[in-house]
Amino acid sequence: MSIESLAASAVAEASSHALAADPFIGSLTIFILAIFVGYHVVWNVTPALHTPLMAVTNAISGIIVVGAMLQVVDINAQEISVTSVLGAVAIFLASINIFGGFLVTQRMLAMFKRKGK
Questions:
Q1: Taking the model in full, what pTM does it have?
Q2: Residues 79-97: tens digit of each pLDDT
């Protein structure tokens, strides 16, 4: 049994007990598991799949922008809330990620183009 599977089973066992006790601990456990799984998924990607992986990352950032826009726009609100400020920050940061991702993807695709004769 590998160390990764032991760690995953230990975290899963701890999260099952933690979810009943405190929602924050459960959310934190899921976040840590997502980091662990994401790291291993990206690390083991073959070089041929880097461009599609970048495209999916851009799509996820686009979904974040849509969700943040829905949080920022509150028609009945009379004052600026913490949610709308965090939504505006999320829109800004995800937009930078999207445009930067498109530039990197464009450069990666340009490497595979054949030179014209």
A1: 0.51
A2: 778 878 888 888 888 888 8
| Three state DSSP letters for the chain | CCHHHHHHHHHHHHHHHHHHHCHHHHHHHHHHHHHHHHHHHHHCCCHHHHHHHHHHHHHHHHHHHHHHHHHHCCCCCCCCCHHHHHHHHHHHHHHHHHHHHHHHHHHHHHHCCCCCC
Look up residue 77 and give its amino acid.
A
Amino acid occupying residue 28 = L
3-state SS class at 45: coil
